[in-house]
Amino acid sequence: MSFFIPSAMAQAPAGAAPESNPLFTLLLFGGMFAFMYFFIIRPQRKRQKEHSDLVGSLSKGDEVVMNSGLLAKITKVDDEYLTVDAGNNTELRFQKVAVHAVLPKGTIKKI
Fold this sequence. Notes:
Blueprint: H1 22-56, E1 63-66, E2 71-77, E3 81-85, E4 91-95, E5 99-103, H2 107-110
Antiparallel strand pairs: 1-2, 1-5, 2-3, 3-4
């Protein structure tokens, strides 16, 4: 016989889950998907497209930076590989995807 808690407002039995709005749950999942798309998936696809455009535009005579940090000049381009001159007539073969960036002409001579 409590004077402070009316019997109509008594606590729910143990194990009973509170009811949730299914629309709220649907909006929560939709918001999470939108967040993942705009902050993770979309920027990654943009970077992949930029890199594939870069790799596709490589040509003989371009000065490049490889993923390893090597600065070199392209001497030969194949379908999947390229040959670069690393200095002192040292030629190395790399996969095209190992190119990090293309440098402006004459950058290697300035260094």
